[in-house]
Write a structure and sequence with these properties.
The complex is a heterotrimer of chains A (about 280), B (about 300) and C (about 300). By secondary structure, chain A is an alpha/beta fold. Chain A is about 35% helix and about 25% strand. Chain A has one domain: 3-Layer(aba) Sandwich (Rossmann fold). Chain C has a domain of about 170 residues: MetI-like fold (Orthogonal Bundle), CATH 1.10.3720. The N and C termini of chain C lie far apart (about 60 Å). Classes of the chains: A alpha/beta (about 280), B mainly alpha (about 300), C mainly alpha (about 300). Chain A: InterPro entries: AAA+_ATPase, ABC_transporter-like_ATP-bd, ABC_transporter-like_CS, P-loop_NTPase, PstB-like.
Amino acid sequence: MFVNPTSQQTTTWLERNVVDIKQKFGANIILETKGLRVLYGDHEALHEGDLQFGEHQITALIGPSGSGKSTYLRSLNRMNDDVATVKGQILYRGVDVNRSEIDVYEMRRRIGMVFQRPNPFAKSIYDNITFALKRRGVTKKAVLDEIVETSLKQAAIWDEVKDDLNKSALALSGGQQQRLCIARAIAIKPDILLLDEPASALDPVSTSKLEDTLLRLKDNYTIIIVTHNMQQAARISDYTAFFNQGTALEYDVTSKIFTRPKVALTNNYVAGDFG
Amino acid sequence: MNPKLSNKIANGALYGIAGFIVLILAALLGYIIITGLPMLNWHFLTTPARAFTAGGGIGIQLFNSFYLLLLTLLISFPIALGAGIYLNEYAPNNWVTNVVRTAIEILSSLPSVVVGLFGFLIFVVQFDFGFSILSGAFALTFFNLPLLTRSIEESLAAISNTQREGGLALGLSKWETVTRIILPAALPSILTGVILSAGRIFGEAAALIFTAGQSAPALDFTDWNPFNISSPLNPMRPAETLAVHIWKINSEGIMPDAKAVSSGASAVLVISVLVFNILARFIGKRLYQKLTSAK
Amino acid sequence: MDKKLQEQLLKKSKAAKLERLGRGVSFSALLLITLTVFAIILFVASKGLSTFFSNHVNFWDFLSGKSWNPSVTNSHGQPEVGALPMILGSFIVTILSAIIATPFAIGTAIFMTEISPRRGAAILQPVTELLVGIPSVVYGFIGLTVVVPAVRTVFGGSGFGIFSGTFVLFVMILPTVTSMTVDALKTVPRYYREAALALGATRWQMIYKVVLRAATPGILTAIVFGMARAFGEALAVQMVIGNAALVPTSLFAPASTLTSVLTTGIGNTVMGSMQNNALWSLALVLLVMSLIFNLVIRLIGRKGAMPK
């Protein structure tokens, strides 16, 4: 391996450098993991991923494919329960939610998720938004209408769909579908929004609209986003974590990660040398 | 032999064989239509059968077939749906699931006459339902369950996992996700499976001989109270179906025009199955388009 | 720690309750089917075995006896319940129809997948689907009115017998075996074919030496599946085989199968009588054979799943 000239200030190759953002920046921690490990059968996909997430911040998780960043994200609201063994603590506002007594449905209502591929239901746009609300007992038409409008507006798709709310959601373009999925997720007013490479299936124009949406949502929601797109992480996130081989190798404010990372491997990755 | 020559010979033989199969179907259908179609008129389709004289119809048998089909689907669909959902959405990959799957496979390969005999033993004799529509419907349910369960399971499996994740991520239970999101999306193909199974039920006879019985007592089509013995809706009356009727009049050989009646009844059976097949495809396609397209 | 949040998260939500209910309901549906299967096996076995346990018929005599006449007692004071004629009848029609159907099924399947997939999809697939859908009594009826008289004219005798039964079964199982063979051929990867053609093989050499070899387990499964259907088919066979419980000596003489004796006999006997128990023993043989066919299919599947 060679040492990249810009990485002079790096101190280590593989030693973890995870900054305590509460201590260092006074961040208000809404979610953190302690001793989190994820196993698929015998294969441990995540060994050392512990991070803290600040309230009303956007945190980006970056790293090469198979580095464990998606596994980590999906463990946070226990979407991996069926396929993997998740050990350790997930502290959501101080409450460990990685316990069998925790009502996982109530927890997921607060920690929502948007996926890589847009997955609107085979229903109308309106029903996509109201579906979960109705299941939770919200039935008043006026209330539902109101929520549909505000969440579609927050997701920056209202103007495009307001005239055909009864149209099938499957008839929308990919970018619109993904913003609809975000609207669907925020309609139930979660606390935290997890996004698993939400722009990877979108074209550049849709991607930029999506990024605008996320930046605006930041005022009301805590956002954790997995992305392959380095520029995207740099553009929208406050903090960035770099994952490699099942480990969160480096975690710091985004500008630091992209300009003066401490770990050489992080530097190589953000410089585009591998991944 | 020269490879080129053997290639030619094989090619010719394959064309011959494929043609032969088409010929078989053409001959079968042709025979049924040519001998059966002239029989089909309103009188034949609506009047009761006559055992000893010519000129009877198949009215009661036809009604029985449809009623039995309806009852069977009413009983078997919820069970198959539950089983299909559990198998596709919940069943862990362990020995219990393995045993269950094996059991379903065994049930699907059991000769229908054995299923009928079991139905006879349990419902006709033990539960004292006698030869009745209800006994027949239960026997046909056993016969129908494995295939319907499998077809529902496959329909559910065809719906992308991202849809399930979408529901779960909104804090919904798996059950709500499956019943409210996955099931509606799988509806077109589930319906196709149900209609195709209806075709099988409609033509089945061996499982019914000793359960629904081989007699078709006269029905009073003005009496729709299911508790009256002559009511068409009474589920406790014996009910010979169309398929059983064909078998019976041919094995007894008393009815003078048994051959003509059988031809007509066969034509009705085959046309019904044909209609079921076409309907299955058509409805499935239409529903699918309706679900996915812009309204 | 947020106490209020903790409480909210620990409370069982409506969704959690629904989940338990739904899981329970769907599992009970599955359990019901499974229990039914066990019940069928148990009941048929207990009825079928009573011939040997309560009526003290020797099991070997049952399998090898050539005379079936349960209401008559033989010189040893034992009822005449030799099931050999029916067992032989069932096996002969099954094996013969499978032997005849196999080349046709494979040929058609090859035509559909290798020679002319376009015509296969447009013509042959609907044809096979329709043939599968035709009810078995209709096959029986046509056998009775067309095949039996034709056999009578050509070969003499009554026309009823093994030959007619075999012919009807052949037509009946042909579409099933064909469509399963098509599925088997379709699973052979495309690159197998391309590799063979690239080596200079003719199309027939490619099919014969590569595709058929690779698809052998699937084709065997299809054939056994067809045999299971033929063995268990009742009415169509019963209508054309003649129903004489005699050890078959000619393809054209009336004979009988397990299913044909069952369908004609069970209604004429009294539940619990010797004659009735003997019929249940025949049903048990049918059941056991169906389990064996199932087992064979599984064994082929397991073997076929191994790397080639």
